[in-house]
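User: Teach me something about this protein's shape.
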Amino acid sequence: MTITSLMDDYCPEKRLRGEHGLSMLVEHGGFRVLFDSGQGPAFMENANALGVGLGAVDAVVLSHGHYDHSGGLAAFYAAYPGKPLWAGPSWSARKLAADPAGLIDIGSPVEFPPPGAPEPRVPVDRQELAPGLFVLVAAGEGDPSKLNPRFRVRAPGTEGSGEPDVFADELTLVADTAGGLVVLTGCAHRGIVAIVRDALARFPGKPLRAVLGGFHLVKQSGERRSQTARELSALEPGLLRCCHCTTVDGYAALKAVFGERASWFHVGSRVEF
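Assistant: First, the predicted structure itself:
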């Protein structure tokens, strides 16, 4: 299994571009998945610079409908129409955020699904995309009182501030590798610890090889970040590769517990399992 970062907030290589967003190419058993697409077409420029051929992608998986994960799909489907697109069960709902300035639309900045894309496929839980590569639907915490109240969701054709977003559309990738499970998250809005616990429960007896992706430790207290690191450590992952919404402070908390087993998965990074 190989995972390549095509977009992240941190980009140390001058030949590549970074932005607040996430996109990865996941290759497992000859099957290629584009996991998210950043804010726009920059992830495709990075792929080209890295020698990654996106024309060979077998499927697209959208972790959730926020702009920093879905914005590049229009450019992708303009270049590669017809590729299967997987999205969560509430993919048509509008994503919003409640800020002091008012309600902000933080959903896809372009038409979704974009021209060239087929109607999104909604996976069943533990949908097997290819041998050993699975999608989990809404893994993690579904109690609105335990999720960030800033995020809202509005049903199609309705007005107003919507309802608390419990991220029923959030998809998680899990690969069952020879060394154990690899859990791949987009933003982990439903709680990174809860998501990993759910993944382990769905594959009983499997060790946890790695957790990789955005851990959404934005605006968490220092104690909460440290608690998250300790709880993740108790699940005994072999390594962590965090990025995007984990934040620098979140990364520091993880490093304090995991040491060399944790690193930042920046644009251009590649890891093999």
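Now, about its shape. The CA atoms of residues 3 and 271 lie 5 Å apart. The chain has a mean pLDDT of 96. If you'd like, I can walk through any region in more detail.
User: That's plenty for now, thanks!
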